[in-house]
């Protein structure tokens, strides 16, 4: 082979390598999060969305926005949320599909609070295939595993910023000034369904409807389990390990 031919071959091979690299960079990260109420998903997914520069699609917040706007969906959703039950699948799936179809989700998303049942998991597979196809997708289900005793106390002490959504815990992760968000100065509020009675119903719903998803995703080989006991920073480090 002449020197000229060798140079051409090298250039072509380098171009192939570059193309491969670009492919890897544009892999669409589709990360979903599973875990019982108040397991810390919201705090970590907020942070992860900023870190990966991906949209944070938080199902509970989308539903609460519908309630606040007194939309027909919001009026239906409220009656289920107040009882700690799942909102009907058609309603929640249509809200999620609209959100995942938006342009900012084209390169991936952090999906928090959906799916919460096998029926919803199947709906998610269908919408992913419909919206973007499955090529180039890096789909992972991240499961937050933690001791149950801490959960109720986390729920009743949880507060969030009414302006930016940042989540605090008045015992374990308080704000510097009581009632005021450290990040944006907004006013802290407590979610209406964060009381002991509704929390109990939410746990029952979780174990009945959502926990079966752990095996569902394990069988598909996409489940990553995180030990979610410990400080926010400790859990964060473990998340960084599994999203690489
Ligand atoms: P969260 O903010 O994720 O704790 O959700 C609060 C409440 O919104 C839940 O207790 C349910 O009533 C409702 N909800 C959130 N996500 C879903 C979902 N994927 N399917 C049905 N209902 C949901």
Describe what you observe in this structure:
By secondary structure, this protein is α/β, with parallel strands linked by helices. 52% of the residues lie in helices and 16% in strands. The protein has ten helices and eight strands. The protein has helices at residues 3-25, 41-52, 59-68, 72-81, 89-100, 118-132, 149-157, 196-210, 212-219, 232-243; strands at residues 28-34, 56-58, 108-112, 137-145, 158-161, 167-169, 188-189, 223-227. Strands 2-3-1-4-8 form a five-stranded parallel β-sheet, with helices on both faces. Strands 6-5-7 form a three-stranded antiparallel β-sheet. β5 and β6 form a beta hairpin. It is globular, with a radius of gyration of 21 Å. The relative contact order is 0.16. Residues 19-25 have low confidence and may be disordered. The structure holds adenosine monophosphate. Residues 37, 59-60, 63, 80-81, 84-87, 92, 113-114, 116, 120, 193, 202 line the site of adenosine monophosphate.
């Amino acid at each position: 082979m002449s020197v000229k031919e060798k140079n051409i071959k090298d250039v072509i091979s380098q171009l192939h390598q570059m193309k491969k690299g670009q492919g890897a960079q544009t892999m669409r990260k589709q990360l979903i999060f599973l875990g019982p109420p108040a397991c810390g998903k919201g705090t970590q997914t907020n942070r992860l969305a900023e870190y990966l520069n991906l949209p944070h699609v938080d199902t509970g917040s989308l539903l609460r926005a519908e309630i606040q706007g007194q939309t027909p969906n919001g009026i239906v959703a409220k009656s289920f949320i107040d009882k700690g039950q799942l909102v009907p699948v058609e309603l929640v799936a249509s809200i999620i599909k609209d959100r995942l179809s938006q342009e900012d989700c084209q390169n991936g998303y952090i999906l928090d609070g959906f799916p919460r049942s096998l029926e919803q998991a199947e709906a998610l597979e269908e919408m992913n295939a419909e919206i973007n196809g499955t090529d180039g997708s890096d789909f992972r289900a991240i499961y937050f595993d933690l001791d149950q005793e801490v959960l109720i106390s986390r729920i009743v002490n949880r507060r969030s910023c009414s302006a930016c959504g940042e989540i605090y815990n008045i015992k374990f992760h308080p704000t510097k000034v009581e009632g005021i968000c450290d990040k944006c100065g907004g006013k802290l509020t407590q979610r209406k369904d964060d009381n002991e009675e509704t929390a109990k119903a939410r746990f029952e719903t979780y174990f009945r409807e959502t926990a079966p998803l752990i095996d569902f995703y394990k069988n598909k080989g996409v489940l990553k389990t995180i030990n979610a006991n410990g400080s926010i920073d400790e859990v964060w480090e473990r998340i960084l390990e599994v999203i690489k």
